[in-house]
Amino acid sequence: MLLGATAFGLSGCGGLGLGPTDANSTIYVLEPALQAAPAAGVPVNWALEVDLPTAEDSFNSRRITLIKADGTMDYYANAEWPDSLPVLVQTALVAAFETSGRVPGVARTQDAVHADYEMGVEIRDFAAHYGAQDKDNKPSGNPKISVTLIAQMTTAHGRKIVANFSASQSADASENSTSAVVRAMNTALGAAVQQIVTWALTMTAPTSP
Fold this sequence. Notes:
Layout: E1 9-10, E2 26-27, E3 47-50, E4 54-55, E5 63-67, E6 72-80, H1 85-100, E7 105-108, E8 117-129, E9 132-133, E10 139-140, E11 144-155, E12 161-172, H2 178-200
Helix pairs in contact: 1-2
């Protein structure tokens, strides 16, 4: 299992007054744009299972995370994902491998299909980072989105660690609003999963023990 290393102070308030102000939560879609591999790409001769990513409690949630300039963590008020963040990242990774057109078999580990490799992923960072705060201690200015995913490839049989990879991507929110932050998170996540797919596709099939 991959171990978390991110450590932020968690703010005691239940969410800053940014984004929607209605009493009910708005559900935002995390669905990054994905790119197909070049037509000349040769399919690999292995199948893959993608584990449900691990994450610290602060990211293992349906809430949308922000990091204030003083290093404390909070969440956008009245805003959430349709499922927990690890589930959404796993879905994005599986979709990215499928979209590449170069992996003949890819599925979630919980689908219990035959695979040659198993990919574990840790969500190390997935937040809007602010560089300033106003007089009321609320984050101000347009935040920078940071997404860091640590991938580990192991053989599905024998659990031998083959390789590790760190994908880090960022994107600037166009304004200080929840919707702008979500758009930037989709951009950064899309780039990060594309990095992981490109890295994984360089591997050959595992050899028999």
